[in-house]
Structures are given as structure tokens and as C-alpha cells.
């Protein structure tokens, strides 16, 4: 049996959380690390002159979430939806290789969900800079990790996370509180 497929409420929650955290920019831009990026944080093959429609960006996000979900499908049990969404956002943000090498993933494989949830906040550096330090101007990473942690631990729902980010979700965006 295949676990942790990206369907239903988990898919809706992941699109809402990751899409909101990433933000959408249809024109290519350089992210804080100097990497050319477009849509919801896509970097593969992106060049300075690229631009995409909203529909193309949405399709890219769905495809990319499926790709970044692959390590979670290799777990031999079903993750709770909130844990799945938090771990998928982490994988999307840092990449599948970072997820696979992380203590967070090792703890998920050991079914230590609470321990895994505590690992998100260790990933608060960008290009060697501690994003908890205001002058490094990368506080968004810290906010993202706090939301992933709280979501993972079940302290907030997807709807609560979106509200914290200043996004008012509609019922179509989040089918129900996860």
C-alpha cells in the first residue's frame, strides 16, 4: 500500500499553505539567495526573461508539490494531514535532498512525530546567516518554520496558519480545518 499520496484535503491544504508562504510572482526574479525564481518559488531552469500566466503557475505548483512529496510517500505509515502538510512545505522550501538528509525525516521514519515537529525550527539559516537576527533581513524563514512547527504539532489549523500570514482563506481554498 502506498501512503501519503497528495490528494484531497492534504493537497488543498498544501496548495494553500505553500502557495501563500511562497507568494506568486509571474515574472522571473532573483530570490534573496540570488537564484532566478518564478511563480511560487520555482527555480529549475528559470532565466531572467521568463514569465508565466496564473494558470501556468498553478500547474507548476501542483506538479512541484507532487515531486516534493515523494520522500513522504516512502514512509511506511500514513501521516496525519497536518504533519503531512508541514513536512511537504519543508520539502518544497528546502528540497527533497535536504528533507531526506534531515533529522526531521529520520524521526518521521521512526514514527516520532512530535520529535520531527520540533526539528523545523532548526532550519532558520539562509546563506549562512541566522534569520532570527533582524539585521539579516530574512525573518520570513523564521515565520515559516514557526508555522510549520505549530501546524505539525496540531497547535494551529491550515486556516489559522493562513490567517497568521494575513491571508483570509475562503471555503474553496481550505475545505475544512486540518
TrEMBL record:
It comes from Vibrio ruber (strain DSM 16370 / JCM 11486 / BCRC 17186 / CECT 7878 / LMG 23124 / VR1). The keyword Hydrolase applies. Belongs to the glycosyl hydrolase 24 family. It comes from the Bacteria. Pfam families: Phage_lysozyme. InterPro entries: Bacteriophage_GH24, Endolysin_T4_type, Glyco_hydro_24, Lysozyme-like_dom_sf, Lysozyme_dom_sf. Its EC number is 3.2.1.17. This is Lysozyme.
Amino acid at each position: 500500500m502506498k501512503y501519503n499520496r497528495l490528494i484531497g484535503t492534504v493537497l488543498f491544504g498544501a496548495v494553500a499553505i505553500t502557495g501563500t508562504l511562497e507568494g506568486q510572482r509571474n515574472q522571473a526574479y532573483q530570490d534573496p539567495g540570488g537564484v532566478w525564481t518564478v511563480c511560487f518559488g520555482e527555480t529549475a531552469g528559470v532565466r531572467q526573461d521568463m514569465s508565466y500566466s496564473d494558470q501556468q503557475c498553478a500547474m507548476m505548483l501542483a506538479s512541484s508539490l507532487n515531486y516534493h512529496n515523494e520522500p513522504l510517500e516512502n514512509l511506511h505509515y500514513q501521516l496525519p494531514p497536518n504533519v503531512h502538510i508541514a513536512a511537504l512545505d519543508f520539502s518544497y522550501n528546502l528540497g527533497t535532498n535536504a528533507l531526506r538528509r534531515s533529522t526531521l525525516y529520520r524521526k518521521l521514519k521512526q514514527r516520532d512525530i512530535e520529535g520531527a515537529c520540533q526539528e523545523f525550527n532548526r532550519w532558520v539559516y539562509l546563506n549562512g546567516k541566522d534569520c532570527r537576527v533582524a539585521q539579516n533581513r530574512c525573518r520570513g524563514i523564521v515565520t515559516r518554520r514557526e508555522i510549520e512547527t505549530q501546524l505539525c504539532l496540531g497547535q494551529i489549523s491550515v486556516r489559522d496558519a493562513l490567517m497568521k500570514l494575513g491571508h483570509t482563506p475562503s471555503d474553496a481554498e481550505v475545505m475544512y480545518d486540518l
